[in-house]
Backbone:
Protein backbone atom coordinates (compact mmCIF):
# COMPACT_ATOMS: atom_id res chain seq x y z
CA UNK A 1 0.00 0.00 0.00
CA UNK A 2 1.43 3.36 -1.03
CA UNK A 3 2.09 6.10 1.50
CA UNK A 4 -0.31 9.06 1.61
CA UNK A 5 0.83 12.62 0.98
CA UNK A 6 -1.27 15.18 2.80
CA UNK A 7 -2.19 18.39 1.06
CA UNK A 8 -2.35 20.05 4.46
CA UNK A 9 -5.48 21.97 3.46
CA UNK A 10 -8.07 21.91 6.23
CA UNK A 11 -10.46 18.99 5.76
CA UNK A 12 -9.41 18.36 2.16
CA UNK A 13 -7.31 15.29 2.91
CA UNK A 14 -10.42 13.69 4.39
CA UNK A 15 -11.95 13.84 0.90
CA UNK A 16 -9.31 11.31 -0.21
CA UNK A 17 -9.41 9.43 3.11
CA UNK A 18 -6.00 10.43 4.37
CA UNK A 19 -4.15 12.09 1.50
CA UNK A 20 -3.08 11.69 -2.13
CA UNK A 21 -1.27 8.41 -2.85
CA UNK A 22 2.46 9.08 -3.05
CA UNK A 23 3.70 9.57 -6.61
CA UNK A 24 0.33 10.59 -8.06
CA UNK A 25 0.23 13.32 -10.71
CA UNK A 26 -2.96 15.27 -10.08
CA UNK A 27 -4.62 17.84 -12.32
CA UNK A 28 -5.92 20.82 -10.33
CA UNK A 29 -8.41 22.28 -12.77
CA UNK A 30 -10.60 25.36 -12.61
CA UNK A 31 -11.53 28.64 -14.17
CA UNK A 32 -10.35 32.13 -13.18
CA UNK A 33 -10.79 33.16 -9.55
CA UNK A 34 -10.99 29.69 -8.03
CA UNK A 35 -7.69 29.92 -6.10
CA UNK A 36 -5.74 27.26 -7.97
CA UNK A 37 -2.31 28.84 -7.50
CA UNK A 38 -2.97 29.53 -3.81
CA UNK A 39 -4.03 25.92 -3.29
CA UNK A 40 -0.86 24.71 -4.98
CA UNK A 41 1.24 27.08 -2.88
CA UNK A 42 -0.40 25.94 0.36
CA UNK A 43 0.26 22.30 -0.52
CA UNK A 44 3.98 23.06 -0.89
CA UNK A 45 4.01 25.29 2.19
CA UNK A 46 2.64 22.69 4.60
CA UNK A 47 4.84 19.95 3.18
CA UNK A 48 7.91 22.22 3.43
CA UNK A 49 7.12 22.79 7.11
CA UNK A 50 7.15 19.01 7.45
CA UNK A 51 10.62 18.81 5.90
CA UNK A 52 9.58 17.82 2.38
CA UNK A 53 11.19 20.02 -0.28
CA UNK A 54 8.80 21.40 -2.89
CA UNK A 55 9.08 23.50 -6.05
CA UNK A 56 6.45 25.64 -7.72
CA UNK A 57 7.14 26.14 -11.44
CA UNK A 58 5.13 29.01 -12.90
CA UNK A 59 4.93 30.05 -16.53
CA UNK A 60 2.39 32.76 -15.72
CA UNK A 61 3.62 34.79 -12.73
CA UNK A 62 6.99 36.20 -11.66
CA UNK A 63 8.50 34.83 -8.47
CA UNK A 64 8.05 38.03 -6.46
CA UNK A 65 4.39 38.27 -7.45
CA UNK A 66 3.67 34.67 -6.44
CA UNK A 67 5.23 35.23 -3.01
CA UNK A 68 3.48 38.57 -2.59
CA UNK A 69 0.07 37.09 -3.43
CA UNK A 70 0.60 34.16 -1.06
CA UNK A 71 1.62 36.43 1.81
CA UNK A 72 -1.37 38.66 1.17
CA UNK A 73 -3.85 35.78 1.10
CA UNK A 74 -2.25 33.78 3.94
CA UNK A 75 -1.13 36.49 6.35
CA UNK A 76 -0.89 33.96 9.20
CA UNK A 77 1.87 32.10 7.32
CA UNK A 78 4.65 34.18 8.86
CA UNK A 79 7.49 31.78 8.03
CA UNK A 80 7.25 31.81 4.22
CA UNK A 81 10.53 33.73 3.86
CA UNK A 82 12.29 31.32 6.23
CA UNK A 83 11.17 28.31 4.21
CA UNK A 84 12.31 29.95 0.99
CA UNK A 85 15.67 30.94 2.48
CA UNK A 86 16.26 27.39 3.74
CA UNK A 87 15.38 26.03 0.27
CA UNK A 88 12.52 23.92 1.55
CA UNK A 89 10.09 25.96 -0.55
CA UNK A 90 11.38 26.98 -3.99
CA UNK A 91 9.50 29.30 -6.34
CA UNK A 92 10.62 29.22 -9.97
CA UNK A 93 8.68 32.03 -11.60
CA UNK A 94 7.88 32.97 -15.16
CA UNK A 95 10.92 35.26 -15.46
CA UNK A 96 12.96 32.06 -15.50
CA UNK A 97 10.69 30.38 -18.04
CA UNK A 98 10.43 33.29 -20.48
CA UNK A 99 13.75 32.35 -22.06
CA UNK A 100 12.01 29.16 -23.23
CA UNK A 101 8.55 30.57 -23.87
CA UNK A 102 9.79 33.34 -26.15
CA UNK A 103 12.66 31.57 -27.85
CA UNK A 104 11.04 30.05 -30.93
CA UNK A 105 7.30 29.56 -31.11
CA UNK A 106 7.60 27.73 -34.42
CA UNK A 107 9.64 25.02 -32.71
CA UNK A 108 7.16 24.38 -29.92
CA UNK A 109 8.18 20.75 -29.38
CA UNK A 110 11.75 21.83 -28.74
CA UNK A 111 10.59 24.62 -26.40
CA UNK A 112 8.43 22.25 -24.35
CA UNK A 113 11.10 19.54 -24.22
CA UNK A 114 13.76 21.98 -23.04
CA UNK A 115 11.44 23.41 -20.40
CA UNK A 116 10.74 19.90 -19.05
CA UNK A 117 14.46 19.11 -19.09
CA UNK A 118 15.18 22.26 -17.09
CA UNK A 119 12.42 21.41 -14.62
CA UNK A 120 13.77 17.86 -14.26
CA UNK A 121 17.25 19.17 -13.48
CA UNK A 122 15.92 21.46 -10.75
CA UNK A 123 13.84 18.76 -9.09
CA UNK A 124 16.87 16.46 -9.05
CA UNK A 125 19.21 19.20 -7.80
CA UNK A 126 17.02 20.10 -4.82
CA UNK A 127 15.84 16.52 -4.19
CA UNK A 128 12.29 17.85 -4.29
CA UNK A 129 9.46 15.38 -3.73
CA UNK A 130 6.54 17.83 -4.01
CA UNK A 131 5.91 19.76 -7.24
CA UNK A 132 3.34 22.27 -8.49
CA UNK A 133 3.20 23.35 -12.14
CA UNK A 134 1.28 26.56 -12.86
CA UNK A 135 -0.09 26.19 -15.46
CA UNK A 136 0.33 23.42 -18.01
CA UNK A 137 -2.48 24.94 -20.09
CA UNK A 138 -0.18 27.84 -21.04
CA UNK A 139 1.90 25.33 -22.96
CA UNK A 140 -1.17 24.48 -25.01
CA UNK A 141 -0.89 27.90 -26.63
CA UNK A 142 2.53 26.93 -27.96
CA UNK A 143 1.42 23.59 -29.34
CA UNK A 144 -1.26 23.87 -32.00
CA UNK A 145 -1.59 20.14 -32.68
CA UNK A 146 -3.77 18.56 -29.93
CA UNK A 147 -2.15 15.15 -30.42
CA UNK A 148 1.31 16.65 -29.87
CA UNK A 149 0.06 18.39 -26.74
CA UNK A 150 -1.28 15.12 -25.36
CA UNK A 151 1.98 13.32 -26.14
CA UNK A 152 3.98 16.03 -24.40
CA UNK A 153 1.65 16.05 -21.40
CA UNK A 154 2.13 12.29 -21.11
CA UNK A 155 5.90 12.80 -21.32
CA UNK A 156 5.77 15.40 -18.52
CA UNK A 157 3.73 13.08 -16.32
CA UNK A 158 6.23 10.30 -17.00
CA UNK A 159 9.18 12.49 -15.99
CA UNK A 160 7.49 13.47 -12.71
CA UNK A 161 6.76 9.82 -11.95
CA UNK A 162 10.38 8.84 -12.62
CA UNK A 163 11.46 11.54 -10.16
CA UNK A 164 9.04 10.14 -7.52
CA UNK A 165 7.40 13.55 -7.19
CA UNK A 166 3.83 13.95 -5.95
CA UNK A 167 2.51 16.76 -8.07
CA UNK A 168 -0.36 19.17 -8.57
CA UNK A 169 -0.48 20.27 -12.21
CA UNK A 170 -2.66 23.34 -12.58
CA UNK A 171 -4.93 23.51 -15.61
CA UNK A 172 -6.67 26.80 -16.42
CA UNK A 173 -10.16 26.21 -17.79
CA UNK A 174 -12.26 28.67 -19.77
CA UNK A 175 -15.08 28.57 -17.25
CA UNK A 176 -15.41 28.14 -13.50
CA UNK A 177 -19.06 27.02 -13.75
CA UNK A 178 -19.60 23.33 -13.07
CA UNK A 179 -22.47 23.03 -15.56
CA UNK A 180 -20.30 24.29 -18.43
CA UNK A 181 -17.18 22.33 -17.58
CA UNK A 182 -15.81 19.98 -20.23
CA UNK A 183 -12.83 17.69 -19.63
CA UNK A 184 -10.74 17.13 -22.76
CA UNK A 185 -9.13 13.69 -23.38
CA UNK A 186 -5.70 14.57 -21.96
CA UNK A 187 -7.20 14.99 -18.49
CA UNK A 188 -7.59 11.26 -18.13
CA UNK A 189 -3.84 10.69 -18.36
CA UNK A 190 -3.52 12.14 -14.86
CA UNK A 191 -3.74 9.97 -11.75
CA UNK A 192 -6.26 12.36 -10.27
CA UNK A 193 -8.47 15.30 -11.13
CA UNK A 194 -9.52 17.92 -8.59
CA UNK A 195 -11.99 20.42 -10.02
CA UNK A 196 -12.56 23.88 -8.54
CA UNK A 197 -15.80 25.72 -9.28
CA UNK A 198 -17.21 29.20 -8.83
CA UNK A 199 -20.95 29.85 -8.78
CA UNK A 200 -23.17 32.86 -8.16
CA UNK A 201 -22.47 36.53 -8.79
CA UNK A 202 -20.67 39.38 -7.05
CA UNK A 203 -20.27 39.09 -3.30
CA UNK A 204 -22.50 35.99 -3.22
CA UNK A 205 -20.15 33.86 -5.30
CA UNK A 206 -19.39 30.45 -3.78
CA UNK A 207 -16.22 28.44 -4.32
CA UNK A 208 -16.56 24.66 -4.31
CA UNK A 209 -14.46 21.63 -5.17
CA UNK A 210 -14.97 18.08 -6.36
CA UNK A 211 -12.63 15.12 -6.75
CA UNK A 212 -13.42 13.67 -10.16
CA UNK A 213 -10.99 10.75 -9.80
CA UNK A 214 -8.00 9.67 -7.74
CA UNK A 215 -6.09 6.50 -8.52
CA UNK A 216 -5.00 4.40 -5.55
CA UNK A 217 -7.63 5.53 -3.08
CA UNK A 218 -11.33 5.79 -2.41
CA UNK A 219 -12.55 9.37 -2.37
CA UNK A 220 -15.56 11.52 -1.70
CA UNK A 221 -17.88 12.22 -4.64
CA UNK A 222 -19.39 15.24 -2.90
CA UNK A 223 -19.04 18.75 -4.24
CA UNK A 224 -18.01 20.76 -1.18
CA UNK A 225 -17.67 24.51 -0.59
CA UNK A 226 -14.35 25.98 0.50
CA UNK A 227 -13.02 29.36 1.52
CA UNK A 228 -9.65 31.10 1.44
CA UNK A 229 -8.73 32.54 4.84
CA UNK A 230 -5.66 34.19 6.36
CA UNK A 231 -4.74 30.84 7.94
CA UNK A 232 -5.19 28.84 4.74
CA UNK A 233 -7.85 27.25 2.58
CA UNK A 234 -10.46 25.13 4.31
CA UNK A 235 -13.25 22.91 3.09
CA UNK A 236 -16.44 23.87 4.90
CA UNK A 237 -18.15 20.48 4.98
CA UNK A 238 -16.93 16.93 5.22
CA UNK A 239 -18.24 13.65 3.80
CA UNK A 240 -19.68 11.26 6.37
CA UNK A 241 -19.25 13.89 9.11
CA UNK A 242 -15.52 13.18 9.39
CA UNK A 243 -13.13 15.74 10.89
CA UNK A 244 -9.47 15.03 10.33
CA UNK A 245 -6.97 17.27 12.09
CA UNK A 246 -4.05 18.22 9.84
Residues:
Amino acid sequence: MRARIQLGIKNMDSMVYGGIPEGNQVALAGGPGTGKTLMGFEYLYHNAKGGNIGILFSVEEHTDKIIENAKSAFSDFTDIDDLIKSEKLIIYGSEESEMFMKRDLERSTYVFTEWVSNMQAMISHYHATRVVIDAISVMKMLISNPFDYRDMTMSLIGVLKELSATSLIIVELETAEKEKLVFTPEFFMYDGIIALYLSGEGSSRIQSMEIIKMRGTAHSFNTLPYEITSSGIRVLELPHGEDMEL
Observations:
- Residues 241-246 have pLDDT under 50 and may be disordered.
